[in-house]
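Our platform keeps sequence and structure together, in a single record for each protein. Such a record has a labelled line for the sequence and another for the backbone structure tokens. Nothing more is needed to write down the fold, since each code stands for a local backbone conformation. For reference, a complete record is included directly beneath this paragraph:
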Amino acid sequence: MGTDVKRSALTGIWRQLPFFLWLVALWMLLWGQFTLLAFLTGTIVAVFVTSVFRLPPVELSGRLNPWWLIVFFVQFLAAVVKGSLVVAWQVVRPGRQPGVSVVAVPLVTDDDLIMAHVGVTASLIPGSLVLETDRDRRVLYLHVLGAATDAEVDEQRRMVQRWEARIVRAVGSPAQLEAIRSSRSGAAEIHTGGMNGRKQERS
């Protein structure tokens, strides 16, 4: 009996470990510091939040792909640097002011934690900020700087959806990963069909 209890406790800790590490990483990203002090203070804050507020346990997928997790962080850091440079140029550039739009981004996965990860990721990249989340319809509404035309809005929407795909590849469940793959296949078929239709109209 005691062995089963210990095993259950260890399993619960292991399943919650990625969420705990995500809180620490989020703290470091919010402060913009990747130092030992930031890591230690983030750990203290994560322990305090999860212990004192006694949030309901988060059901994780139990799947972690280290390679895609590394790819996600590298691409995220590159996006932060690129976004900072783009926003700085849009502010100091002479001429017209950069357009702004509120972009609705439908997500593929039906998971609150994935939705939160996508929203935080999009908000941490300069130039975009989550204004509202529609939990029932699985839609994020973002305020985006530099998206004035329909093409720019569509590109911003696809960019957020690509972040969802990267997060699912790193920590999503097999079912969520399959949903992402099916969605990408369907989008590719629609794009191919549209291209063929335009070719037929020209001919």
About this structure: The longest strand covers residues 100-106. The chain has two domains: 1-60, 64-202.
